[in-house]
Specification:
single chain; alpha/beta; Rossmann fold; 5-stranded parallel beta sheet; globular
Amino acid sequence: MPGRAVVLLSGGLDSATTLAVARKEGYECFALSFDYGQRHARELESAQQVAASLGAVTHLTLRLDLRAIGGSALTGDIAVPKGRSHEAIGAGIPVTYVPARNTIFLSHALAWAEVLGAQDIFIGVNVLDASGYPDCRPEFIEAFERLAHLATRAGVEGSSRFRVHTPLITLSKAQIVARAHELGVDLSLTWSCYEPEPDGRACGLCDSCLLRKKGFAEARLADPVPSAH
């Protein structure tokens, strides 16, 4: 029987679907979010609502100041790209990449999992649409799993065999939207935009908004989140 699992939850479409998958598989889910100095707190509001909606046992938000490091359009004074083609989005590592973010997040998830006695961690990484992110690749996940066994007391003593689950890693955005719909995720609670409009709507032009639009269009579903463009 599945036991406890730590699920990384940003409040976005992918992480919400990942939480729904973990719940569907019978895990007792502990949702983990990060207030890391990102451009806006809107996604954290979504994370809180998604965690409650999908029945997480608890939802922990850790505060990290990655703005002190910078190096990304999400944590520094670098413009968020707008209106790029899907070819451009999929080519190279974009300026919205936050240095070592998934390594940082998974390390905290691993620490919490060890405290909880959980052997399973879920993360909504995906390699197809935004393929430029180096910390979304299967090779990275496999390497982190090996590290988890070497770096923890539970791993060394053999009391836990940590597994990092990536249920969306080979899915297109359209397939993720369809899976979320199938699992009953309230998509109106999710948030993808990197740079919301002053009136609270999604910008509709950043890479994340454009990938979300493409996913909903190809899944032939209407996006319930208002967008300015």
